[in-house]
Amino acid sequence: MKISIVGTGYVGLVTGTCFAETGINVTCVDIDENKIKNLKQAIIPIYEPGLETLVKKNLEKQRISFTTSLKESIDQTDVVFIAVGTPPGEDGSADLSHVLNVAREIGKNMTHHLVVVTKSTVPIGTSVKVKAAIRDELEKRGAQIPFDVASNPEFLKEGNAIEDFLKPDRIVVGVENEKAQTIMSRLYKPFVLNNHPILFMDIPSAELTKYAANAMLATKISFINDIANLCELVGADINMVRKGIGTDSRIGNKFIYAGAGYGGSCFPKDVKAIIKTAEKNNYPLRLLQAVEAINDDQKKVLVNKVKNHFKDDLKGKTFAIWGLAFKPNTDDMREAPSRVIIRHLLDAGAKVHAYDPVATHEAQSIFGDEITYGKDPYDVLIEADALLLVTEWPEFRMPNFKVMEKLMKNKVIFDGRNIYDPQEINENGFDYYGIGRKSIRE
Ligand code: UDX
């Protein structure tokens, strides 16, 4: 079997590499010549644990190749995945121009039957547009080549993408006929061996599944954050409440950790997009509107605590930030709570020293020299008025309080992910503020 993947972004590159792992022949296409040049040498544009090694291995085994020519790539291919970006347009709905351009290119260049699979997260109804674009180009050529469209949303998490792809909770595929279903089930056979189900359904259901899954997860997070804020007002502890509700198997214990809000490339974009789709159908999704509004506010909770502690006078004060990426194990800062927190601190006249194990270069492209960047966690603590823990990287979990005490001007920790034990922090002489739990002041 031979497949091609158009778009070597996060989803495209992981998808291509993992399919190559199963022994099939994969061609990855991108219009970015520089990216393709680098990928040919296994230089990958993103930070994702394990990806570089797998790209290198499959390049050596000649199971994966990279090209800028879509025409070349679909020669003798059975399946083409469209995995290009769908950035939010000005009104929040997904911009489909890249997806539809690829569909047109496929229509212009295809010479035999193809299954054209949408892998990018696209609004409901996109497969119909993809089909129309391909058909239109075929008609212009006067060509009568059969093809099928399919929708195969991706559920991988950044930082765990390889594992998620190789051992999926489930694979969702929307198809229109048996032929496409047979081809797709053959392709995914290696991944469903150990009871990982493949769910075939109609295309609109597959398209909506992706949005509904992310919207549900975002809802869990905004729900727990809302309850966390209530905990503080009534003297409860969100960690206790979390355990108390999470042991109910109907609720489950995952994705109910209170924090500084959700970020990343998926949740914020997808919640916006599903709200938009519903609006277009004259059905406002009131619950998800609230989920979004709660999350926007939650990104400010930590900085509000800082302002309260310092009685609204942050001018000239120095704050150390631990963690810039929207979550651990990625350098991605899209919609990261750290961006909102840092912007508020700067606007209030404070200085910011930030450290992240891998996202420094990303932060530099956002904040430039408005903030300074440390080489290690302790570096940024020098003369700091407080520490704000924003991303729960493992290396922040067991800090050396004796060293911290010597470096910092004020002994205050704002724990935006509840990773510390307030009692332990307090025994070490620090003031402690968490999310949804009692703060402890000396
Ligand atoms: C998510 C989905 O999990 C994935 O299935 C989908 O394909 C893309 O979107 P990702 O964006 O990589 O993946 O991140 P994820 O690990 O899900 O975390 C999202 C955000 O939620 C992070 O900012 C994280 O800090 C936050 N989060 C997560 C919480 O605040 N509390 C939790 O309990 C869990």
TrEMBL record:
Keywords noted in UniProt: NAD, Oxidoreductase
EC number of the protein: 1.1.1.22
UniProt-listed GO biological process terms: polysaccharide biosynthetic process; UDP-glucuronate biosynthetic process
Active-site residues annotated for this sequence: C266 (nucleophile)
InterPro entries xref list: 6-PGluconate_DH-like_C_sf (IPR008927), NAD(P)-bd_dom_sf (IPR036291), UDP-Glc/GDP-Man (IPR017476), UDP-Glc/GDP-Man_DH_C (IPR014027), UDP-Glc/GDP-Man_DH_C_sf (IPR036220), UDP-Glc/GDP-Man_DH_dimer (IPR014026), UDP-Glc/GDP-Man_DH_N (IPR001732), UDPglc_DH_bac (IPR028357)
Domain of life according to the entry: Bacteria
GO MF annotations in UniProt: NAD binding; UDP-glucose 6-dehydrogenase activity
Binding site for substrate: F155, L156, K157, E158, K210, F255, I256, Y257, A258, G259, G263, K327
Functional pathway: Nucleotide-sugar biosynthesis; UDP-alpha-D-glucuronate biosynthesis; UDP-alpha-D-glucuronate from UDP-alpha-D-glucose: step 1/1
Annotated residues for binding of NAD(+): D30, K35, T86, T121, E158, K269, R334
Role description: Catalyzes the conversion of UDP-glucose into UDP-glucuronate, one of the precursors of teichuronic acid.
Family, similarity comment: Belongs to the UDP-glucose/GDP-mannose dehydrogenase family.
UniProt protein name: UDP-glucose 6-dehydrogenase
